[in-house]
């Protein structure tokens, strides 16, 4: 079997550990391991040309060398054209070897890249992706991304026979290729710092992002105490308040705003000020309010950190600052758990691919009660969209359009 792995959607710490684990497990089980650069966009772009030279002494066609473990032929980095010794220009679906992913579990972000692919959202784009995979003989895909990316994988799988039929009719693939590629095997792993997927206790990258936030709030705490100041800290979480809530519990916030639980009836400004005032009256020298990026009020209007700051300044006379943690939450080296969990899940993903039949559902590999588990992917997506977030889909759309007038459904 030829197994390819790709990362999709926003990057998260632990994605490289997924790639490493899938590549090594695939090879250990006698499969060929491939990576797709730049997410689904790479599948659509495919390989404009084949490599012209092999790497001397390498049987398993290693193309992507970790810069630190490469063989000294470094050219350019960061251009997207070269990852190390070999030009990858025009090549997005790349066979890799054991050494290519050595040490990757300690690296932040995703070294094989991620992109938002407009083309893959169209049936034509997905057909091109199928063609590019069949050309390379790939019949199994591990996708690490959020619920949108994983849903895309399931759609791709269900359409696959149709794509094969169309490619055959167009004379683009041979009868042998048709026979060898009747079905696509897929498995999803959930990479998201927001911990926003049902049927898994943790998504890959959430623990690291939470730790990053805690470090920042610890730093803010010491300067806040020094000046007796208030800080409004904005954290990520467009639809999901897990990071905000857990950060509040770990660092001691006075008030927290999350999208799933808009402040109840009445005036939240009064409620917040009353509580903070009472904390100050018992001698607290600092105030921390955490606002999730997607926090909304009961009318679904966004609660902005700057507005919270104005309320604290105007009503309580607190010297207040806003700190937006932004992408510092997403980057950087993975915490230990975001190395171990993706490693175990990568192994499970390859095993699921090897056991997959046309009848088995598309699986998502998650973790539940500290055990790595396969669950039906689309069940997890459906649950995430219904009960996973307390604001309904309709309300979510309204909230998004109030926040961003250009928001398109
Ligand atoms: O990965 C999800 C997320 O972290 C959200 O919480 C946040 O709103 C978003 O990514 C930011 O995405 P981008 O990097 O595209 O601005």
UniProtKB/TrEMBL annotation:
Its main location: cytoplasm. It catalyses: beta-D-fructose 6-phosphate + ATP = beta-D-fructose 1,6-bisphosphate + ADP + H(+). The keyword Metal-binding applies. Pathway: Carbohydrate degradation; glycolysis; D-glyceraldehyde 3-phosphate and glycerone phosphate from D-glucose: step 3/4. The keyword Metal-binding applies. Keywords: Allosteric enzyme, ATP-binding, Cytoplasm, Glycolysis, Kinase, Magnesium, Metal-binding, Nucleotide-binding, Transferase. GO terms for biological process: canonical glycolysis; fructose 1,6-bisphosphate metabolic process; fructose 6-phosphate metabolic process. GO terms for molecular function: 6-phosphofructokinase activity; AMP binding; ATP binding; fructose-6-phosphate binding; identical protein binding; metal ion binding; monosaccharide binding. One of its GO terms (cellular component) is mitochondrion. Belongs to the phosphofructokinase type A (PFKA) family. ATP-dependent PFK group I subfamily. Eukaryotic two domain clade "E" sub-subfamily. Catalyzes the phosphorylation of D-fructose 6-phosphate to fructose 1,6-bisphosphate by ATP, the first committing step of glycolysis. Residues 2-353 form the Phosphofructokinase domain. Homotetramer. The active site is at residue 194. This is ATP-dependent 6-phosphofructokinase. It is found in: Cytoplasm. It comes from the Eukaryota.
